[in-house]
Design brief:
The chain is an alpha/beta fold. It is built from 17 helices and 11 strands. The strands form 2 sheets. Strands 1-7-6-5-4-2-3 form a 7-stranded mixed beta sheet, sandwiched between helices. Strands 8-9-11-10 form a 4-stranded antiparallel beta sheet. α11 links the parallel β4 and β5. α2 packs parallel to α4. The longest helix has 23 residues. The radius of gyration is 24 Å and the shape is globular.
Length: about 475
């Protein structure tokens, strides 16, 4: 038993296997950068994939490098320029090396002594981000594991700050049910947070959107008054920066003004698009974010770091301490408000990864400009694609894109059938070919293809070829049906 443990912790074996893995990943990255033909999403069926790995687990022999190679082969190739699917960034390679360091050190960060350097780094990173968003010096926050956890954390803080009593300790009172206002195009994590807090379906007051799919400011007062007449106590309004479905930004500055006038908490879900604040060209999209009471931004979406790292910032830093004000006296100081350097009482997690380290490394390696360059490159590409679609017959946009998310569909000129079904079949055909990875969504009750241009090395030729594939597939399917 002792010799097995010695073998598992052998530094030299780690060095040998690590060098091999870095060489393997370097070759993989090179293939992706050179756009070598490969199935971007290798075709597979869930049950077959499970059977394959079940069989592998039962085998007696095992080669670590062969395992790595197979895993790469079967995975979705986010680093390939023809990956245009979900909002997951191809991480800068050196940030992935930092993730390896984090994994090996494995400092849990529940309290300062479990992650001293990482704890200080997290605070420095959060202060850096708050400054870039023009939040006041009083702003503080936490890093957490993903936008869903981030939105829940921000809205829990809103509940604690706005309900008028210590709801965390006392539980909900038999008074007017609490609710929040949010665009009907918002990410499901906002509605999920309301349900987790016990507000149910009624606790989600949906704001109608206008023709551009932004929260319609003309309806704010009417929506609020209607909710109040129905006996709801609305305590917060949520702005999207941007929506997941179409990448549309809500009018954050007008939402901030409405929140202030009505005494509401203003939360901004900037998981995907909050990083536009780094770009002079696109910063106007997040005008008003600096007025938010709480903001969520994912570093693993538009800031080039591996998943999952999410910042939750509070305009009034004290709200960061009050969200989870429960007593755990062996960790916290006599149940009192804890110091900034003990994070167990401020996040959903107790044990937490060293989330800020890779962000700190990115800042020091490349500076703020890397984030501005990335936003400009991918958002410009989204506008370029929109222009191409408007010049191509048979293609239609769901809405004019704000950034790098573009929703569109192709309908052959003489086609009179079910356009939604045709769009879904076109997507299936593209996925079956496997040269591209794109997804689909519903906008205003219609089915559209959706691309999210996350790879800064995606080129015009990739977009041109994609549109040609879509046209060919659509024409062939229309003729067949």
């Amino acid at each position: 038993m002792k010799s097995l443990l010695q073998h598992a912790f052998n530094p030299e074996e780690f060095r040998r296997e690590g060098h091999k893995l870095v060489d393997l990943l370097t070759a993989y990255l090179t293939d992706c950068r050179e756009a070598i033909a490969m199935p971007v999403l290798p075709p597979s069926a869930p049950d077959e994939m499970e059977r394959y790995w079940e069989g592998e687990l039962k085998k007696q022999d095992f080669d670590l490098q062969q395992f790595y190679t197979k895993l790469i082969t079967q995975s979705n190739h986010i680093h390939h320029p023809r990956y245009m699917g979900h909002q997951v960034v191809p991480p800068a390679p050196l940030s992935a090396l930092t993730e390896l360091l984090e994994a090996l050190l494995n400092n849990g960060m529940a309290i300062y002594e479990m992650g001293p350097a990482a704890t200080a780094i997290e605070r420095v990173v959060l202060r850096w981000l708050a400054q870039r968003l023009n939040l006041p010096a009083s702003a503080e926050g936490v890093l957490t594991s993903g936008g869903s956890a981030g939105n829940l954390t921000g809205l829990l803080a809103a509940r604690q700050a706005m309900c008028g009593y210590d709801i965390w300790e006392e539980g909900s009172r038999d008074e007017a049910p609490l609710a929040l206002m949010v665009s009907e195009e918002a990410h499901y994590s906002v509605a999920r947070a309301a349900r987790i807090m016990g507000w149910g379906e009624k606790g989600i007051v949906k704001i109608p959107v206008n023709g551009n799919l932004r929260a319609d400011t003309r309806t704010f007062n009417q929506t609020l008054q209607k909710a109040r007449k129905e006996g709801l106590r609305v305590i917060a309004i949520v702005g999207n920066a941007c929506t997941t479905s179409t990448g549309t930004y809500d009018p954050l500055d007008e939402m901030a003004g409405f929140a202030k006038a009505e005494g509401l908490w203003f939360h901004v879900d900037g998981a995907h698009g909050g990083a536009a604040a780094f770009s002079e060209k696109y910063r106007h999209l997040v005008k008003g974010i600096e007025l938010a009471d709480s903001v969520v931004i994912d570093f693993h979406k538009m800031m080039l770091t591996p998943a999952l790292t999410t910042a939750v910032l509070f305009r009034n830093g004290s709200h960061s301490y009050e969200t989870f004000a429960q007593k755990a006296e062996y960790l916290l100081v006599n149940g009192k408000k804890q110091a900034w350097y003990d994070s167990a009482g401020r996040t959903l997690e107790c044990t937490k990864k060293m989330l800020g380290v890779k962000v700190f490394a990115m800042i020091k390696l490349y500076g703020d400009k890397i984030f501005a360059d990335y936003i400009n490159t991918t958002y410009d590409l989204g506008h370029t694609l929109a222009g191409m679609l408007k010049r191509e017959s048979g293609f239609e946009l769901a809405t004019e894109p704000d950034g790098n998310i573009v929703c569109f569909r192709y309908i052959p000129l003489e086609f009179r059938g079910d356009a939604d079904a045709l769009t879904a079949e076109i997507r299936k055909a593209i996925i079956a070919e496997a040269d591209y990875y794109i997804v689909q969504t519903r906008v205003n009750g219609k089915t559209y293809l959706r691309v999210t241009l996350m790879n800064p090395f995606t080129g015009i030729s990739d977009l041109t070829t994609l549109l040609g594939r879509i046209r060919n597939s659509g024409d062939a399917l229309a003729a067949k049906n």
